[in-house]
Design brief:
4 copies of one chain form a homotetramer. By secondary structure, the first copy, chain A, is an alpha+beta fold. Chain A folds into 2 domains: about 5-80 and about 240-260, Immunoglobulin-like, CATH 2.60.40.2250; about 80-235, C8orf32 fold (Roll). Chain A contains 4 helices and 14 strands. The first copy, chain A, has helices at about 115-125, 130-145, 160-165, 170-180; strands spanning about 5-20, 30-40, 45-50, 55-65, 70-80, 80-85, 145, 165, 185-195, 205-210, 215, 230-235, 245-260, 275. In chain A, helix 1 crosses helix 4 (about 170-180), helix 2 crosses helix 4 (about 170-180) and helix 3 (about 160-165) packs across helix 4.
Chain lengths: ~280, ~280, ~280, ~280
């Protein structure tokens, strides 16, 4: 089984006492086995951990003083995703969706599915239902948008992205999620680490609920589906911010990585397998 | 102990097979005791019940055919809220908030706290912390807005309401929630029934997290805090829609009520007690 | 030459002294000959006339007291448009546009061409230039939108219309104008009367600048191009509001008409001629 | 009479044939006398000049090839503004506004006065009318906003600025203009050069119509009213962009200046005179 080493190295300059909440530790679940995990801060301060929100995102909280800090997170992860034939993955009718998935049909801050329902319905309403439709939406988003760092910011929403035709991974994910919800398919935002990502950084991608499971999609096509290591998921990026800061501090340096230990790692951005996490 | 009889009577004209999800049954929790509850549909069809979302909102789901239906919900509720002195209710520092409340600091579809943070900080940042600040925000919203049915619709957001200075209960609640989140106080949207409401209808109000509990606020001042019977709560109105329709149907008649069985009911819209539900 | 009788009959209830500005009189220019024009108000008050804005829209101004008023406007108009072969109408390169047309390339309140430039460029950038491209945009707008009274209001903009896929004549015109400006073709909003319009009302349509002239387009296809009687034009509907009210009054009744005196009038909504006004 | 030397020095890298339209030459009118004006481009290409829009903004148009160009504009300007006592400048009632000013009551792309009318009315409706009210709006905008380069971009509108409480000169001007229009005072955007501006750059400010004349206001307070040299004015920044580019080019260097020839120049940012241009 292939292992992936993920982690990040963050330097912060703190100007006055500041509360820092990080969501950078990979999710503990049946599909991600974690080995040798560590979270270090230098100079050393106590910090706490908690599980936040309906999807139990791991959050670490630090109270920092006016100093420079280095925070390092490392983990080795083994992924155990289910691999399916796309043609065999069907759509779950809305009336039979599990209750816990219904919240992922609702509009959210960056995914205004209430505004785009007719647009989505006219474009995708008649497409073949099931995995193929979600893959089609994923492809449409990839085609409609240009990947342009700096073209959006932290308050940009899916409808703005649709109009301006550009964005980064976060925006690609928001637009795809919104269109899926519009056609009755629960979809959620996932933050994580990604093998092959150039330049290396945290990544944002998508899970859509089909046939009783959550399937992974990456509308940017910048990483292979079987190289996506999940930190956490939520309704949109608002739920899984990497860092939330109450006070006054600055990120002065950031390094993020996700490396396979296997030379012939079998990670292909273009694979057509359906990959589910639950 | 005073009892409140709540309920609604809904007539629907269904034009083709339609899936209807209702969130109209009052919440079962330690603060609301329910007696004699009934949910009837005529002509009779089977329906299901489920608890949805992190706050376990009760959802009933009906598959309807092209016919006319009448749906009636009735319950008798006894409220057991905690009553506190406003001056003794303090703010919980962000670093000590329970993990399950953190999601209510995030921006959501109709509560774009990421857009209004500086506006809120400049207006309310220096006010005395605790219940008084939240009450101050509640009063400010009441003062800033005119109650005008028809001035907003189902996609109106808090920042739009702030600019246009008008709205209905839903909009009052969204604006208050947004401003609370901006100043670091978890706040959520509550749907429910309300004694004294004129004209009678479903109601939307606010819970803010202070001193380890959720406190009730009604920025419209249209109902007494001890006459609010909760259906469910969520990040904003998107989570607790009374009816969600997949298909083609029309609400042809609606009647909603919330009546106290006690003549000297002690419900006063202007009471200054702090009322908490948890 | 066919004549068209246009007019309107407006009843107002004025609650306190109010200033009313009307832009309902048809434009005086080389392409519209006006006969037998009258503007009456009952009870009688003095009113003034002026030409407003760069396109000299006729504006009548009334100071009204707390009373009921009836205002009637009537004119008989003969249209002398130029009729051209669409295939012979070419695009004017931006560098050779007359200076007075450049303002119609700028974004305006309801036509945010700065937001939609890439969207428009990707959709229409490679289409054949000239009248055919503008007609193509007109057809695309007609196809993309559903005509739905009540789906928009007076503050709805082109980008909102593009997302929600519905609107009325004003919204059709705004979207078409915006897309034309995005691809470098000056376009402006025209208010007027329209033969065959069902239900009869004021109408809003489009002029695009091609080959040295302004050509008429109606993306709603609700009226024939040679049955459009122009009141005035501007950057968008903000410039040619039928009524602007400073005070407190209510329109209690409105009747609008545009009738041809010719039984075999030759007005066809589907005509493919290119019709220019200058 | 004090003279001001203004100008700019612009380096462009052109990647393919590009049409460049500049609006950088100062306005010729009765209040600005121009001496020794020059506009040079190197390597030399022919260019044209035109007067654009209802306010006759001077526009120079260049067709450039894939090369590097330097463009230099210089002029010496003598300002002849009228100086009045603020207390004697009254508001012109809407019914008596000259027709050519009415367009400056309409909402425009970056000044959505249709969205903010109630907000403005509740804040400023009861203030003393005349120059004092406009100065009050100017002061309110200065107080409400933080000057933060990078906090807005070229598509930011007045209502966004109002919510986010920050912006640059363009945004200050847009918000002030919008609020003036909301309370019935025509207001327009002016681009120009400004003495004392730090760092030196093009500037954007405001003219409001009072008592039959256009009065200058600078809500940023970054330059003295009698040191503002006007390029042109329009409904908002959309009408007076310094550079409009059709093609592919990049501004690689920019220098802008406005220097008084008088050592004791009498330019004071804090002067309380009313300064009008017409």
């Amino acid at each position: 089984m292939t292992q992936i080493e993920v982690g990040c190295n963050l330097d912060y300059e703190v100007r006055r006492e500041t509360l820092l909440q990080l969501q950078i530790a990979v999710a503990r679940d049946n599909f991600q086995q974690i080995f040798n995990e560590s979270l270090l801060i230098n100079p050393n301060v106590d910090f706490t951990g908690a599980l936040v929100g309906p999807e139990s995102v791991r959050l670490n909280q630090f109270t920092l003083q006016a100093e420079n800090y280095n925070i390092q997170y490392r983990a080795t992860v083994e992924l155990l995703p289910d691999i399916d034939q796309p043609t065999e993955v069907r759509e779950t009718p809305i009336g039979r969706l599990p209750p816990e998935t219904l919240t992922y049909l609702n509009p959210s801050r960056y995914c205004e599915s209430d505004l785009l329902s007719r647009f989505a319905f006219e474009k995708f309403g008649n497409w073949q239902r099931g995995y193929a439709k979600v893959q089609g939406i994923c492809d449409w988003v990839n085609d409609h948008l240009d990947y342009e760092p700096g073209s959006t910011n932290g308050t940009t929403t899916a409808s703005e992205v649709l109009l301006q035709c550009s964005g980064v991974c976060r925006d690609y994910a928001h637009l795809m999620i919104t269109l899926c919800r519009c056609v009755g398919i629960p979809a959620r935002y996932v933050s994580g680490y990604a093998v092959n990502l150039q330049p290396p950084d945290f990544h944002g991608f998508v899970e859509a609920f089909l046939d009783g499971q959550w399937y992974l999609f990456d509308p940017t096509r910048l990483a292979p589906l079987n190289g996506l290591v999940r930190i956490g998921c939520g309704r949109d990026a608002a739920d899984v911010a990497f860092a939330t800061i109450y006070g006054d501090m600055r990120l002065s340096h950031k390094e993020v990585w996700a490396n396979s230990t296997d030379v012939n790692n079998g990670f292909q951005n273009g694979s057509s397998d359906a990959v589910s996490t639950a």
